């Protein structure tokens, strides 16, 4: 779990705001630039490229879809976007105006499922653009992250309702309140243990929920670190970003956490993913991607590269 090195690679200007990141089917890293309305692509070792959207569209979360394209939410434009590995973009308007789509994930049914933060709905979009929306039981819940669970459902965080939700393929919703008040969960991912793991940005904790709704919370060493996104590291461990602490962290399935400082102060880490090269990659809002390699023994921290 110890980083052998952390290197930062500049991929955009400091105002573009790299936000979320994922590994595409073409063995490239794809990332959103929320402030400039662009989708970026980086093959490790090559120069970055990008595709311009509406500059005010606010692309946020990006994932690989079941059709071999990348799918992303446009938070400000209230659309779902699709980009092929060749760079062809298609955008789909949503039925509910001003719904603020944020999280998105591929479901077990061959569709994409997403959260509508300001409309208190979970959305589903087929690969040909057909949209269905499912209302949640509470208003003002601010559904945020979403992921597919091993139980065949989609699991999501309710940031303002302080809960974790599940929606079945039939649209049935179950809500599980969190033990810690005002924890404000955001990112969520399926762990290799069959449970769902999530970050509590306001409480400085990592949470774990089983398919039957049993919840554990693990306080982090710095409760003010504001954990934001979380991903599976491929070896059973989970990795997460600390937006307020300027760190990345790892946690074992037993709940043992380690934190690791990023080289550049105030780099604003957000999304994190396991890259095609076996390293962890984090999106830094200052215009860079951080590559975190893992070795048994720590080596010196890395440098910032142009």
Automatic annotation (TrEMBL):
Record key words, sorted: Antibiotic resistance, Lyase, Magnesium, Metal-binding
Annotated active site: 270 (proton acceptor)
Taxonomy, superkingdom: Bacteria
Keyword Lyase annotated: yes
Annotated GO MF terms: lyase activity
Stated family: Belongs to the Vgb family.
Oligomeric form and interacting partners: Monomer.
Protein name as catalogued: Virginiamycin B lyase
């Amino acid at each position: 779990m110890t980083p052998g090195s952390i290197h930062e690679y500049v991929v955009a200007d400091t105002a573009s705001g790299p936000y979320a990141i994922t590994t595409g089917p073409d063995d490239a890293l794809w990332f959103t630039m929320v402030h400039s309305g662009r989708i970026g692509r980086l093959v490790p070792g090559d120069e970055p490229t990008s595709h311009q959207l509406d500059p005010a569209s606010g692309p946020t979360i990006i994932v690989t879809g079941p059709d071999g394209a990348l799918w992303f939410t446009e938070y400000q434009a209230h659309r779902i976007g699709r980009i092929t590995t060749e760079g062809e973009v298609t955008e789909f308007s949503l039925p509910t105006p001003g719904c603020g789509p944020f999280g998105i994930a591929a479901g077990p049914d061959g569709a994409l499922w997403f959260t509508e933060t300001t409309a208190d709905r979970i959305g589903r979009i087929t690969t040909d653009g057909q949209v269905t929306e499912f209302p949640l039981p509470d208003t003002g819940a601010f559904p945020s992250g979403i992921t597919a669970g091993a139980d065949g459902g989609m699991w999501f965080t309710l940031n303002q309702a302080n809960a974790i939700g599940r929606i079945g393929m039939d649209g049935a919703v179950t809500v599980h309140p969190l033990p810690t008040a005002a924890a404000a969960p955001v990112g969520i991912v399926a762990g290799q243990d069959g449970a769902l793991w999530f970050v509590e940005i306001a409480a400085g904790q990592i949470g774990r929920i089983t398919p039957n709704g049993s919840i554990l919370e693990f306080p982090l060493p710095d409760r003010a670190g504001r954990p934001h996104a979380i991903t599976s590291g491929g070896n059973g461990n989970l990795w997460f970003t600390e937006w307020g602490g300027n760190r990345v962290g790892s946690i074992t399935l037993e709940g043992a956490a380690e934190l690791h400082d990023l080289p550049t102060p105030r780099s604003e880490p957000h999304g994190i993913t396991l890259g095609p090269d076996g390293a962890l990659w984090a999106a830094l809002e200052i215009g860079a991607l951080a590559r975190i390699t893992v070795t048994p023994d720590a080596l010196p921290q890395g440098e910032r590269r142009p």
